[in-house]
Amino acid sequence: MSLQHEKGVALVTGAGRGIGKAIALRLAGCGYHVVCVSQSAGSCGAAAEEINQNGGSAEALAVDVSDATAVREACESILGKHEVVDVLVNNAGITRDGLLLRMSEDDWDQVMATNLSSCFYWVKGLSRPMTRKRHGRIINISSVVGLMGNAGQVNYAAAKAGMLGFTKSLAREFAGRSVTANVVAPGFIDTDMTSSLTDEVRGKISAQIPLKRLGKADDIAAMVEFLASEEANYITGQVFTVDGGMVM
Ligand code: NAP
Question: Does residue 42 line the site of ligand 1, with CB under 6 A?
Answer without folding.
Answer: no
